[in-house]
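job 3f2a | input accepted
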Amino acid sequence: MSKLLALRETANLTQEELAEKSGISVRTIQRIESGTEPKGYTLKALAKALDVTESELLTENTIPEQTIIPDQTDLTWLKLINLSSLPFTIIPPANIVLPLILMFAKKEFTPLTKQIVSVQILWTILSPIIFMLGAFMKNWFDLGNKFTMVIMILLVLSNVFIILRNTAELDKNKRLYIKLNFSII
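job 3f2a | predicted structure (185 res):
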């Protein structure tokens, strides 16, 4: 659900009423509600008509959608998609592949599934960077070969923690504990 649609429905306005109140065409409102981001004058006019700030109108509506409690089937699939990264925590790029395959196979493109995969993508990007920084620090500070092994173990354990903590939170509160404020996919 787009932010404009949610705000319009909260204000109990039809698209036509919002168009009249804001001076923006119905077609433009339809485009924005289907995913186009409002800009410039359109953004200002819609924000004024809905009596909200421009940033509120631009903020993605992922948080309210994430608070919608999925039915048990969706919750099971969400946990499965999240846990599917677990066997591949040692091979960082592979920890994204299986969740993506499950997400596409089930056609489960909810904000929660996108967040699950986005967290894994971000971890996959950051882990080699952290590993390389650790390798450089080992050479600069003469920390020895055990330091590299400790970094590798900590990186794997951090991903295991993320996966298990999110699964526990999905099971308990039907939301993610570790999530991003943006979606990579």
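job 3f2a | Residues 14 and 110 are 26 Å apart (CA to CA).
job 3f2a | closed
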